[in-house]
Design goal:
The chain has about 150 residues and is α+β, with helices and mostly antiparallel strands. It is built from 1 helix and 4 strands; from the N terminus they run αββββ. The protein is about 35% helix and about 30% strand. About 10% of the residues are buried.
């Protein structure tokens, strides 16, 4: 006579006695969650690249504005005057692509009508980032010393 013997290996959460392994649906749900997580990470990379590019352009514009401001401050009081121009800066991306950014700058030198020997100097550097116009602005005053 043939006798079948049943064995029990304990109880798993959910009350299923003797259950071993994972069901196919559990494996598919796990893979789906991992896939969504990986996709979210890949979607963050372009946003991070854009943020790095904007930071780089802002640093370049700030450096240009400071250079223009220092040039005005090095001039004599009477020689400091308004001017504007543009400058193209070449740079390399993290993926070794060569890009250039056109910076337009304007230096405004104004003197109040109060008769004081004081000039206000404003330097504005602008550039286009994507479809948005960005700018950096620096201000200072220059006095005439006897």
């Amino acid at each position: 006579a043939f006798v079948m013997k049943e064995t029990c290996h304990g109880t798993l959460p959910g009350g299923t006695a003797g259950r071993r392994g994972l069901a196919l649906i559990e494996v598919l749900l796990g893979l789906a969650l991992v896939t969504v997580g990986i996709l979210v990470l890949f979607l963050l990379f372009p946003a991070a690249d854009q943020a790095v590019a904007l930071s780089d352009r802002t640093a370049q514009a700030t450096q240009l504005a400071r250079r223009l401001m220092e040039r005005q401050m090095a001039l004599s009081f009477d020689d400091a005057k308004s001017e504007s121009d543009s400058e193209t800066v070449e740079h390399t991306t993290r993926r070794n692509a060569r890009l250039s950014t056109q910076f337009t700058w304007q230096v405004e030198v104004t003197q109040p009508e109060s008769g004081r020997k004081l000039k206000r100097i404003v330097v504005t550097v602008s550039w286009e980032h994507g479809k948005v116009q960005r700018s950096v602005r620096c201000e200072t005053c220059k006095g005439a010393y006897w």
